[in-house]
């Protein structure tokens, strides 16, 4: 079945919550990890994180001019989420080592966008959902005026399996398949991938 991807504001809130599930990291995080500074994280309860995400996505409002990500469907079932918006929307990125080590760039450039998170619904993994979302993120950012789009994927050594939840940032191959190229390697396990428009 082909995977279709829509901006989150064109998806229903219940569909997005179906992707996140009721347990696990996605349900607890509500895609707020990069939105909330380190010292504030513990003070923001899950319910508040969900309300923030609901406001950010504007789910169920197809006429909205803004949203913070994409929702993937397989045969009508909501199966995936990808966070993609201007890099400035992610306060935690401004102070993290990963995006900036070895690069001298304006951290406040609103024309550079970022893909920070993928969630694939339990039961639909290893079916190309993240790859479809990464490709759609490129088109989404380009259509909204981005000059470039970045991702910060994890690298796994050959033969090593990812621990649960470790690949929420995506893998290098997912980004490479969508046309991104490596621009820096700030840690042994993390690279910065980027596509210029």
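Q: What amino acid sequence fits the structure above?
A:
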């Amino acid at each position: 079945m082909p995977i279709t991807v829509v901006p989150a504001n064109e998806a229903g809130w219940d569909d997005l919550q179906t992707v996140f599930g009721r347990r696990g990291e996605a349900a607890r995080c509500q895609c707020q990890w990069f939105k909330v500074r380190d010292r504030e994280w513990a003070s923001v309860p899950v319910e508040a994180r969900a309300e923030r995400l609901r406001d950010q996505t504007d789910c169920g409002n197809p006429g909205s001019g803004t949203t913070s990500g994409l929702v993937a469907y397989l045969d009508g079932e909501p199966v995936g989420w990808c966070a993609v918006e201007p890099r400035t929307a992610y306060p935690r990125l401004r102070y993290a080592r990963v995006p900036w080590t070895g690069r001298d760039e304006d951290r406040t450039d609103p024309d550079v966008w970022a893909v920070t998170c993928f969630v694939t619904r339990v039961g639909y993994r290893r079916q190309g959902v993240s790859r479809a979302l990464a490709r759609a993120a490129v088109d989404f950012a380009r259509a909204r005026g981005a000059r470039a789009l970045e991702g910060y994927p994890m690298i796994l050594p050959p033969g090593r399996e990812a621990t649960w939840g470790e690949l929420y940032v995506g893998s290098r191959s997912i980004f490479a398949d969508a046309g991104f190229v490596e621009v820096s390697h700030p840690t042994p396990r993390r690279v910065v991938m980027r596509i210029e428009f």
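Q: And what stands out in the fold?
A: The mean pLDDT is 91.
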